[in-house]
Amino acid sequence: MSENHRGTPLDPSYDHERVSVSPAEIRALRDEMQRFLLEYRFGMQEIETKIAILRDEFLHLHEYNPIEHVSSRVKSPDSIVQKAIRKGIDLEFPAVRAQITDIAGVRITCSFVTDAYRLFDLLTRQDDVVVRTVKDYIATPKENGYKSLHAILEVPVFLSTGRVTVPVEVQFRTIAMDFWASLEHKIYYKYDRQVPDGLLEDLKDAAVTAAELDARMERLHRELHAAPVSSTPASAADTLAPALAAPRRGALAV
Questions:
Q1: How confident is the model at residue 24, as a pLDDT?
Q2: Catalytic member of 39, 46, 169, 184
Q3: What pLDDT is stored for residue 236 in this prediction?
Q4: What are the Cα distances from residue 118, in Å, to 34, 113, 151, 237, 240?
């Protein structure tokens, strides 16, 4: 942390006995934080609007809507500070803006695995969306079994003061993946992240079962719609490949 920031109320080392902060300084800091978070809220709303348009199109013009549920959030100031401290990031707004890219987040729950890649493609092909990074935990799950497709996308936000570019983390996952992730989060919270080994193994087994359920339900869906049946999600590499090959929307890392 820079010296000129040390001793402010956002700093965990803040000494209330040693440092005096005037009400005007507190109000100024509050207003700056509000402006900072509003940009992320607006960026999140831009992504939500794009997804809402796609969902309405699917509902009214197509036989099948792949979007089951959409949720969103902006990190609280406390959460941002905790993450900055954990990662050794200076508690200055420019440093936080540059190094923490998941302050705004949107989660899209889909029906099937192929839907996750399809929605990623539909969203990132839009001219004003820039792909910064992609982490495909569907193709390569985390060690604990977690599966999801994560992307950091940049969208423009037009304020009275001009245009700002805002990063938003967008997660794509199936219903089964979302159910597993929700259960895993509750277990880690209950045990304060000190989960017994036996329960961790059960979670991994449950992740395998969820993946099998995804595959089975997608086969049934394809049969119902008389589509060719594939044993693997055909869209994973094919959908991400254009973004990898064409840097038209910015740098992409997988």
A1: 83
A2: 169
A3: 55
A4: 35, 9, 13, 11, 10
